[in-house]
Amino acid sequence: MCEFKVGDEVYFSPYNLNYYESHGVIIRFEQSIDQKRKFAVIHCGHGIFAREYHVFPENLYHTEEEALDILRQELRARINEIKKDIHTLEDLLKFLYNNDISIDAAGKGDDYCVWEERIAVRELVKEICGIDLGE
Q1: Distance, CA of 25 to CA of 40 (rounded, Å)
Q2: What is the pLDDT, as a whole number, of residue 114?
Q3: Rg (CA), the chain
Q4: Residues 17-44: what's their mean pLDDT?
Q5: Does the pLDDT of residue 17 top 50, yes or no?
Q6: Which residues touch 82 (CB under 8 Å, ≥6 apart)?
Q7: Which DSSP string do the residues of the chain spell out, in sequence order?
Q8: What are the tens digits of pLDDT across the range 53-103?
Q9: CB atoms within 10 A of CB 121
Q10: Is 47 exposed, middle or buried, given 0-12, 13-18 or 19+ CB atoms closer than 10 A?
Q11: CA–CA–CA angle 52, 54, 55 (5° rounding)
Q12: Which of 14, 1, 46, 10 has its CA nearest to residue 29?
């Protein structure tokens, strides 16, 4: 792992938003609750849109491509975890019966959904049924 210093531009996924990458500049390091660890304070944006994030160095990346590659790997691992026990049409139907994979499943009007589940179902429908649901 490379060392980071104040002034470095870094890329990261804020607060475990697994589909999103952000970037900013390290403005300082602060002690975490764990006395053995410090986190970087990262300034992002400008004006009223400016934010500060507190991120551990192991979750920081020097390039956007590096951050996106890690996010893709983590997403693929979560999709594979969902798919690992679904092998038949019956398994798939049980999964769909027990999980709401619709967009805005919570009914809050925010278009929230569990993307890992939606992608896994799309891939499984293609693999098990030969039906392409598209993107």
Answers
A1: 9
A2: 78
A3: 19
A4: 86
A5: yes
A6: 116, 117, 120
A7: -----TT-EEEE-GGG-TT--EEEEEEEEEE-SSTT-EEEEEEESSGGG-EEEEE-GGG-BSSHHHHHHHHHHHHHHHHHHHHTT--SHHHHHHHHHH---STTTTSSSS----HHHHHHHHHHIIIII------
A8: 899 998 899 998 988 898 889 889 999 999 999 999 999 999 999 988 877
A9: 20
A10: exposed
A11: 130
A12: 10
Residue 12's identity, in one-letter code, is: F
pLDDT exceeding 70 applies to what percent of the chain?
A: 85
Determine the distance from the C-alpha atom of residue 41 to the mean position of all C-alpha atoms in its chain, rounded to a whole number: 20
Angle ∠(94,99,105) on CA atoms, nearest 5: 150
pLDDT of residue 49: 82
Work out the mean pLDDT of the chain and round it to a whole number: 86
Sheet holding 51-55: strands in order across?
9-12, 22-31, 38-44, 51-55
Q: How far apart are the first and last CA of the chain?
A: 35
Residue 28 sits at φ, ψ, to 5 deg, of -175, 170
Q: What is the pLDDT of residues 26-36, one digit of tens each?
A: 999 999 998 89
Identify the pLDDT of residue 1: 46
**φ, ψ at 57 (rounded to 5°):** -55, -30
